[in-house]
Structures are given as C-alpha cells and as structure tokens.
Task: inverse folding
C-alpha cells in the first residue's frame, strides 16, 4: 500500500497527532499551521486548528495548536505529541503542553525579551532542558532562510526538517506539502525551502 493510501486511512484507523507550534509574532506560525492543516486534510485526515496570542503584536508570544484526527481545538497540557518551535524561549515556555519524551523540532534561534534590563536565558540552558525532557531536533532554520535571501521561509524549512525526521509519518507526506505550496504560491522559494531542510 502506498504512502498516500496509508495516509488516507489514518482517520479510519483512529491515529491522532496533537501538534503545538510555538514562536513569536511575525515568524509565520499561522502560515506554518495552515500548511500542516491543508497537507493533513489533503491526505484524508480531519484537522482542527486554534491559535492564541500572548501579546497580539509582532514579537509577542504566539502558540498555535493543530489536532489531526482530534475533536477539541486546543491541546491540553501534557498531551502534545509534537512541537514545532520557531524560537527556543517559546519552545520551553510551551513545553508544558507536551507529553514526556514528545518530539520537538526547534529553530536554533533566540529572540531576546522586549523588556529592558531583562536578561534572556542562555541558549545552552534552553537546549539542555529540551534535550533532557524531549526528543529534540535542532534546525538552523533562520540562518538557512537568510542564506536563501528570504527570512520568511524559515517556517517552511522547519516543516521540511520535521518531515525528514518522520514527525508526520502516517499523517501526510512531503509530496502533500509540496502540492499545497504549489496551489498557494506556485513553484518558487517555498518549495526550495521545504527541500533545503
């Protein structure tokens, strides 16, 4: 049975995936959630998406929940299977939504808190915490996006890495994501970013 046929049976088999997407405003978290949701639907899954904002502005804390074959919109604390994090501080902040040992695919990037005089946590401490409690995969998504000439594709690079490490196996494939990208933006930098992970 091919991967697409297997994916289309995911809902029938009752497989579920609870995804937490964390970062700050302006990092393309809503776009990332939309790509995941459309790809999962294309592969025959039911999807519910919900978002919450800390500060409703660019640079404020943002978390988006994507539940594949689940009914409620939000992921409850301690129930998440997977986190995609565009920033390390936010990865740690929202890690309370993950099961012990859940997979975390995180952008190796820090956005210092906007409050003057507040010293940000050290990168090494954040990585150590995530590595100790979860299955961590670090990605230089922002650096790679800048090397490609467009920081806006960092979220797609992060998704590409999640696909490569099997985070969405049984739910949708890279080919599903490529089709969604082509329909939304046509061929171009986003497809390159997905493949560059």
Result:
């Amino acid at each position: 049975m091919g991967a697409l046929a297997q994916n289309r049976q995911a809902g029938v088999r009752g497989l579920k995936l609870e995804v937490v997407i964390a970062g700050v405003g302006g990092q393309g978290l809503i776009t990332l959630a939309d790509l995941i949701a459309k790809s999962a639907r294309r592969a025959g899954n039911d999807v519910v998406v919900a978002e919450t904002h800390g500060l409703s502005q660019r640079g404020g804390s943002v978390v988006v929940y994507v539940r594949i074959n689940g009914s409620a919109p939000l992921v409850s604390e301690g129930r998440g299977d997977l986190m995609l994090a565009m920033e390390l501080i936010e990865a740690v902040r929202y890690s309370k939504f993950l099961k012990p040992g859940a997979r975390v695919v995180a952008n190796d990037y820090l956005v210092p808190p906007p409050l003057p005089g507040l010293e940000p946590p050290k990168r090494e401490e954040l990585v150590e915490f995530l590595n100790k409690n979860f299955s961590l995969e670090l990605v230089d998504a922002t650096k790679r996006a800048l090397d490609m000439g467009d920081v806006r594709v960092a979220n797609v690079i992060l998704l590409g890495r999640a696909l490569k490490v099997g985070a969405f196996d049984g739910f949708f494939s890279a080919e599903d994501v490529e089709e969604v990208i082509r329909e939304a933006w046509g061929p171009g930098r986003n497809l390159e970013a997905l493949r560059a992970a």
User: Anything to note?
Assistant: Residues 1-13 have pLDDT under 50 and may be disordered. The domain at 3-196 is CATH 3.40.920.10 (Pyruvate-ferredoxin Oxidoreductase; domain 3). The chain is about 40% helix and 20% strand. The chain has one domain: 3-196.
